[in-house]
Structures are given as C-alpha cells and as structure tokens.
Amino acid sequence: MAESVLGKSYDLSLVFCGEAESHKLNYQYRGKDKPTNVLSFPISPNSGEIFIDLKTAEKEYKNFGLSFQKFVGYLFIHGLLHLKGMEHGYTMEKAEKTLLKKFLNTQVGSSHNNRH
What we know:
Elements: H1 2-6, E1 11-17, H2 19-30, E2 38-44, E3 47-53, H3 54-60, H4 68-83, H5 90-104
Parallel strand pairs: 1-3
Antiparallel strand pairs: 2-3
C-alpha cells in the first residue's frame, strides 16, 4: 500500500500506539484534547510517520461498516494520503475509495467524514 501511494524511495515508519500517546500527540500537534485514531507526520519530502491508535480504532470501527482489521487498513490508507499531501475533501475520499477497493476489496461505510 505504502509503495503504491508514496513510491519506492519513501521511508515510512508505522507506529501502533494507545490512547494516551495519541491523545498527547493530538493535543501537542493539532490542539485537540482527545485521542484520535490516526495521525500522520511528514518528516521530509521522502519520509514520514503514521501513528494508529488501536484502542480508539477498536471503539470506532463498527461506525464505519468495516471489520476491525479493514478499518485499521483504512486508517493506514488515510494516513498515507495525508503524507502524500492530501487534505480532507472529495479528492482524498475518492483516492481512499480506490485504494480500499484495490487493497482491501471493500468500501468504507457512511461515517467516514468523522475520522479524527
């Protein structure tokens, strides 16, 4: 997935964290005083990090009409697209749908506008 979105030369770090860490990072970097399911941090044009909070994802996955495993895959795709420079909106949602179908053979449910 990462190579398809970011290219072969991109250096990506994926971190699975808990609510305390995602809460801290979300507050520090986004000013939001709550945990979040996914955060992306570009480090350079060819490197970045994605943090996925599995506990928060576990609480939310049913709202998206996906299994837990596919929801985590969706969050990873969402993070990849942010690292590519995309922001929330139609273009990003279209790219998410294409990648979900390609890699996870699925589509996201109706609550996808409430990712963070």
